[in-house]
Amino acid sequence: MSGTNAAGVRTTAPWQRLRAASGGGNRWVVLAVLCVSLVLVALDATILHVAVPSLTEDLRPGSIELLWIVDAYPLVCAALLILFGTLGDRVGRRRVLLLGYGLFGVASAMAALADNAQVLIAARALLGIGGAMIMPATLSILRQVFPDRRERALAIGIWTAVAAVGAAGGPVLGGFLVQHFWWGSVFLINIPLMALILPLGRWLLPESKGSSDGPWDVTGALMAAAGVLGSVLGVKRLGAERDLLDPEALVPLLLGVALLVLFVRRQKRRPQPLIDMRMFSRAAFSTSVGCIVLAMLALVGLELIAVQYLQLVLHLSPLETGLRLLPLTFAAMAAGATGSYTLARIGPRTMVSLGFLLTAFAVLVLTFMGHDDRPVLLTVGFILLGFGLQTTLFAAYESMLNEAPAATAGGAASIGETSYQLGAGMGIALLGSVMNAAYAPGLAGVPGVSAEASAGAAHSLGEAYQIAAQLGGPAGEALHAAARNSFVHGLHVTLLVSAGLLVAGAVMALKLPRAMECEADGAGAGEGDGVRLPAQACAEPDPAVGRVSGRTG
């Protein structure tokens, strides 16, 4: 609180001075708060996976309920990113972020204490709503408090590295908690952190808004939410069912795509659109979004298959599997920490292309994985994979955000995060389908195994092991060996396909700018009249573009 000292001079409490500084020179404190919140959102995307067997034994959910327990969070989060990203531009990004913190904490407590599957599904959906409030707000506030592109590049490097740590650390932390406590502890850890970060965010984060001209397009926001939900759900269903004609996948996918097409047409006609579609006419912006989709497609699909390989072929525990993936996390952290330096010297085009090529090389290295554990090979491959993909994601995010006007940073951030989620869903569907196509034929005609048993074993390696155990004897051993051999063969085929997609990404990245540049007049992307200068000449933009205030009351 404020007061006066003995000399009659008005004084300010230390926490108030820190709060006032957070919008300016203390922007690194703001970054720290944003990164802590991002870790929690990223953790919740993966931490539940290792707790599924434990909660299944406790809550006894049906197969559909179990599917929604896992998928409710990412589906709802992906669907609402555009809605809350653009809402933050209108009503205040800090305001939306703080509401997201509160909702995330309440939903975490609800999930931890859930005594049936329905309550847990509802809690996971609420977590998705909170995550959709938090994710685009963190990136758009970062865009505002770091107007200088060189500093912003460093901040985005830290931001992307933290996101990688959260996502990759989920299985490790989840495995530890489930092993020592109960499955609800994977949600309970969010509560003390949110109790800390909510008042810190209220005191330290600056409020910022974009343009508030004209009414907010509620119909368009809901149309985008339904379109993304249908598209992501359809893609996930295709990945699970492996059937392009499955109505449960095809209907939501077609409806989702149709709604997104109508959303784009609506935005083009409106004088004050939620998202300025002219951003996609800029090659750097549209290419960056495409690179994010392609990078996530490779990352999530490869991680899923790698986890299955480590657990089902090498027979590692969930905790051991998470520890084996740690080199990928550390490499991603290194790529984020050095990304700003690299980007300033070689430019977005070379950085993204080299990131894709390094990742493709890592994937080819991993094709030497076989039936036996090769820890050195796996460690080298995961290090190259983590460094290459994080290099690509960092440069793509930085280029995308730089091309967007500061006044619509929330909308641009939501596009980037939605691309991230779509890429993840497409990776599971596409690479999963390739894996299944290469795996299933090897189980046909196994001696002593009926056609019905072979068809069941073709669904997955885990199911094949179960059927082999039920058969027993020579037939069970033959099916077990055939399934294991077919999985390794399918893994090699999938890795080769993934390497081809990554090389295509390297070619796509050639449309990005050659050098790291900025607008000399600070007009921001989309204005069209700014003079481009080298990164070394970047100056602070005009403060009138995108309002940032130190008011936090």
UniProtKB/TrEMBL annotation:
Pfam family, one: MFS_1
Domain Major facilitator superfamily (MFS) profile intervals: 30-517
MF terms in GO: transmembrane transporter activity
One GO cellular component term noted in the UniProt record for this chain: plasma membrane
Localization, UniProt: Cell membrane
GO process annotations (BP): response to antibiotic
Region described as Disordered: 532-553
Chief place of localization: membrane
Positions of transmembrane segments: 28-52, 64-84, 96-114, 120-142, 154-176, 182-204, 216-235, 247-264, 284-305, 325-344, 351-370, 376-397, 418-439, 487-510
Keyword Transmembrane tagged: yes
InterPro entries recorded: MFS (IPR011701), MFS_dom (IPR020846), MFS_trans_sf (IPR036259)
Keywords assigned by UniProt, alphabetized: Antibiotic resistance, Cell membrane, Membrane, Transmembrane, Transmembrane helix, Transport
Gene3D superfamilies per UniProt: Multidrug resistance protein D
Membrane topology note: Multi-pass membrane protein
UniProt-recorded name of the protein: Transporter
Organism: Streptomyces subrutilus
Biological classification of the source: Bacteria, Bacillati, Actinomycetota, Actinomycetes, Kitasatosporales
